[in-house]
């Protein structure tokens, strides 16, 4: 891969502070209203754990600046919120622009307030001033080793990390079983469950795939703004339908995975294995496994880290992880 690319690339991070009383009140009101008009919400889409702020955002932002210093701006998309650490000095140093939901849903204000990452992702390409090439981060994504532009965009192509899989079928009966399974493991094991594969499959189908799809794990997503903007300009009904859900719904698709499959269909994608990706899941990682993963972070064996269920990690290991990430992402 060439390391001489000079194209402007931005980063987009979506974040919410679910501990904010104002946000909690809006969420409760929206839940009450939504339950009157919809009966097919994902169980996990309404869970409080989806909105808990465990402090990962700061590591996300600092890691981008340290390990991908070529990123022009970091756009932080929020619902009229600002994290405590985001003071003027920090904003200037890390080149952060805060974008409110009202900006990306301009002319579509009926979609607000929304508590649905799929809905928000559908509109992030509408950020004013956003570069043609951008990398989408969840707030629990952290870079853990130096990266070049060609890790994400190379020779005019979008670099997609994943593997080819055969499409599964999600009929009414399977959907019903998934709802039961989700409720059961949440009740007895405390593990949240979402239909991540369904979103990817549905997104691939919208791009014209009918047999196989390209499965992508939890990693930062490189996106070409024009690819998704053009699709929605040609299919405004799909845009409007996908943003109407205030909580995750099984009728939705993922705009990010749609963009991936559009690039693949147009032969504008470079497909590579999902190497260097690590996930920490506080609901599922036992103590020994978590310690091994923290050591791998220290040794910079991975490039991409996703942290889920931080609130489930015991206090000792949580402090260990926080110290490790603080040291790793500290700027010189």
Describe it.
The longest helix has 18 residues. This protein has one domain: Spore Coat Polysaccharide Biosynthesis Protein SpsA, Chain A (Alpha-Beta Complex). It is of the alpha/beta class and 332 residues long. It has a five-stranded mixed beta sheet, sandwiched between helices. A three-stranded mixed beta sheet has the order 5-13-12.
- CATH architectural designation: Alpha-Beta Complex
Q: In order across it, which strands form the biggest sheet?
A: 3-2-1-4-10
Residues in helix, %: 25-40%
Distance between the termini: 28 Å
How many beta-strand segments? Answer: 13
Q: Which residues sit in consecutive blocks of at least 5 with pLDDT less than 50?
A: 1-5, 36-47, 184-194
**Rounded to an integer, what's the Rg over CA atoms?**
19 Å
Q: Major sheet, described briefly?
A: 5 strands, mixed
Q: At the fourth CATH level, what is the homologous superfamily?
A: Spore Coat Polysaccharide Biosynthesis Protein SpsA, Chain A
The DSSP helix count reads 12
CATH class: Alpha Beta
Shape: globular
Number of domains: 1
Instruction: Give the topology string: H per helix, E per strand.
Output: EHHEHEHHEEEEEHHEEHHHEEHEH
Family: Belongs to the stealth family.
Keywords: Exopolysaccharide synthesis, Transferase
GO molecular function: transferase activity, transferring phosphorus-containing groups
Protein name: Capsular biosynthesis protein
